[in-house]
């Protein structure tokens, strides 16, 4: 099948079974502070898995654009991509295992046309430590489904995936694995999950391409082997548990089904080819790369195809290259492509021609893809990087040897990827650096950066101990506290003037001013600025009490309190609000303090400079008197 046919037939299949199609969410999650990107279709549905009523009902279906930054280094083989499309269906407290497994099996065999005897499945072996039982129900359902097709259905209890390499298939069709393979939550295995997180056992379906086993991945092959013979094409998660504050697992108020199936992978299985880059999804992109430079190694072609596709979709969803968060990942994708382009002497039209093919391929499904916008962002980033790259290569040319710290200096200062440093090191010099050592140096840098952030006021919503303001700096501390409170009032006023779609994208508070970044797609008019100032100053003039209530995180969010969507909050939080009650408050927000006790202490509020910091993101600077 072509990918478009798989996508359409999946939606229609579940619509016939009472599901309502919901739209694909942005790659940048609006209300999930746990991750930079939407990496699965379930992320936007978290509140509904907890029991909130969805406006479209209890049976949902969609296709979701997804991005996983952790797969950047894996790109180049035949199955890993950073950007991918996930087919998904959900039951929010409606049907459960019997219907879900039966329907997915029917879709694969009767609609996509996969041979049932080339499908293998895995189920959860249980977790005695956390009192989570073995999923015998799913195993029994699968046995019945295979039996009706006249296929052997032996059950094999493997447990840890590493054991599978020692025992092999053992004639099995249905395999039990532990939580490292058949448990799903956003935070990994049960013991790794924080309190409040939800998860559940899952059942995965693998397609057997029949390729010879590569013994470097273990003595024997089994469904979770990484040799390439088996490809996971779908995962039904039975989301029915939540971890409580005591570390125990409780049943949710409803049993949910959360299914995700990779469009690229199901399409690859439908054409019986384990290389997702040979599906129609990538066919025209790879062909264009061949036209630009036909002699490239296949792994490099895959990097070009994947990274430019991923970059195009990130740009379309408003991400711009920068040195932090989502912008950093986009910059990393683009610069890796540019580095390979230079290293392999690829024609410079690559960054313009490939996005053109990508937009033509996907525009009718994702209408927000804007070719001119994508090419402009790539062009600007290439111009910036080539200048830095030239300086970095000049410095590299003077090295007699390279250790891991020097390699990281070249990366941090000039943006040279690790692979390019090794590839372009002058001949005859020592450059025996392991990638894992470079990664450790990167982690140390990140930890140092985080520690640095904890030494200043920042990340509006949590005021941290600066380690800089001494006892003699009480006046400065008081000024920052007043500005911090003023920022709460400003955000509330912005939402009242510009609408509740306004959300925080960052802030920075110093002794002199507050700086606040928020989502908005145009410059504020002078009248709007004046209106925001007036609302804040009115709240200050009323001398409202500024107080807090402490409550569980989930309850705080349900109260309507604002919170920074990328913020990391403990299970129990403080909601600071201005007014006599939380319900009637002028402003209410999750925060760690400190604040003034009454708004009258803030002083007269004044907005100064405004500017654009990224597509769809504005920045305001404001001051207070005194």
From TrEMBL:
GO terms for biological process: alanyl-tRNA aminoacylation. One of its GO terms (molecular function) is aminoacyl-tRNA deacylase activity. InterPro entries: aa-tRNA-synth_II/BPL/LPL, Ala-tRNA-lgiase_IIc, Ala-tRNA-ligase_IIc_anticod-bd, Ala-tRNA-synth_IIc_core, Ala-tRNA-synth_IIc_N, Ala-tRNA_ligase, Thr/Ala-tRNA-synth_IIc_edit, tRNA_SAD. Coiled coil: none annotated. The keyword ATP-binding applies. The keyword Secreted does not apply. Its EC number is 6.1.1.7. CDD domains: AlaRS_core. Keywords: Aminoacyl-tRNA synthetase, ATP-binding, Ligase, Nucleotide-binding, Protein biosynthesis, RNA-binding, tRNA-binding. SMART domains: tRNA_SAD. Residues 1-626 form the Alanyl-transfer RNA synthetases family profile domain. This is alanine--tRNA ligase.
């Amino acid at each position: 099948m072509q990918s478009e046919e798989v996508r359409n037939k999946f939606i229609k299949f579940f619509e016939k079974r009472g599901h309502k199609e919901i739209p694909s969410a942005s790659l940048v999650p609006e209300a999930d502070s746990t991750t930079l990107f939407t990496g699965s279709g379930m992320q936007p549905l978290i509140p509904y898995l907890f029991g909130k009523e969805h406006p479209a009902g209890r049976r949902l279906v969609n296709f979701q654009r997804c991005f996983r930054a952790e797969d950047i280094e894996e790109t180049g083989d035949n199955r890993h991509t950073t950007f991918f499309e996930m087919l998904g269906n959900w039951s929010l407290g409606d049907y459960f295992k019997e219907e879900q497994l039966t329907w997915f099996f029917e879709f694969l065999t009767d609609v996509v046309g996969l041979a049932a005897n080339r499908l293998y499945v895995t189920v959860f072996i249980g977790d005695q430590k956390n009192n989570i039982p073995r999923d015998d129900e799913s195993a029994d359902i699968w046995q019945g489904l295979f039996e009706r097709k006249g296929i052997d259905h032996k059950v094999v209890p493997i447990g840890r995936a590493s054991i599978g390499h020692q025992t092999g298939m053992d004639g099995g069709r249905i395999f039990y694995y532990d939580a490292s393979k058949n448990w799903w939550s956003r935070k990994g295995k049960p013991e790794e999950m924080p309190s409040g997180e939800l998860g559940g056992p899952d059942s995965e379906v693998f397609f057997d391409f029949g390729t010879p086993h590569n013994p470097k991945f273990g003595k024997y092959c089994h469904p979770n082997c990484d040799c390439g013979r088996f490809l996971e094409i779908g995962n039904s998660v039975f989301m029915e548990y939540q971890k409580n504050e005591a570390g125990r697992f409780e049943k949710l108020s409803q049993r949910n089904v959360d299914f995700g199936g990779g469009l690229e992978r199901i399409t690859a299985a439908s054409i019986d080819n384990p290389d997702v880059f040979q599906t129609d999804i990538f066919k025209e992109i790879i062909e264009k790369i061949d036209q630009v430079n036909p002699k490239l190694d296949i792994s490099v072609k895959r990097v070009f195809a994947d990274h430019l596709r991923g970059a195009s979709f990130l740009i379309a969803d408003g991400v711009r290259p920068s040195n932090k968060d989502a912008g950093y990942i986009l910059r990393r994708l683009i610069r890796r492509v540019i580095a390979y382009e230079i290293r392999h002497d690829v024609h410079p039209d690559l960054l313009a021609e490939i996005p053109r093919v990508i937009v033509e391929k996907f525009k009718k499904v994702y209408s927000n893809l804007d070719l001119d916008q994508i090419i402009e962002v790539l062009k600007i980033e290439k111009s910036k990087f080539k200048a830095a790259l030239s300086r970095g290569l000049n410095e590299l040319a003077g090295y007699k040897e390279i250790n891991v710290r020097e390699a990281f200096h070249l990366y941090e200062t000039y943006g040279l990827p690790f692979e390019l440093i090794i590839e372009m090191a002058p001949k005859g010099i020592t450059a025996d650096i392991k990638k894992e050592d470079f990664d450790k140096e990167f982690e140390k840098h990140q930890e140092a950066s985080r520690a640095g952030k904890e030494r200043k006021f920042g990340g509006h919503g949590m005021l941290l101990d600066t380690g800089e303001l001494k006892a003699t700096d009480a006046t400065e501390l008081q000024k920052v506290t007043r500005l911090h409170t003023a920022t709460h009032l400003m955000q509330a006023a912005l939402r009242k003037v510009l609408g509740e779609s306004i959300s925080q994208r960052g802030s920075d508070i110093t002794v002199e001013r507050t700086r606040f970044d928020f989502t908005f797609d145009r410059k504020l008019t002078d009248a709007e600025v004046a209106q925001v100032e007036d609302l804040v100053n009115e709240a200050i003039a009323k001398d409202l009490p500024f107080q807090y209530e402490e409550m569980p995180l989930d309850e705080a969010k349900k109260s309507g309190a604002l919170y920074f969507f990328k913020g990391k909050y403990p299970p129990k939080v403080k909601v600071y609000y201005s007014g006599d009650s939380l319900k009637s408050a002028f402003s209410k927000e999750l925060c760690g303090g400190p604040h003034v006790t009454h708004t009258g202490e803030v002083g007269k509020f004044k907005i100064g400079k405004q500017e654009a910091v990224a597509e769809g993101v504005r920045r305001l600077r404001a001051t207070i008197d005194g």
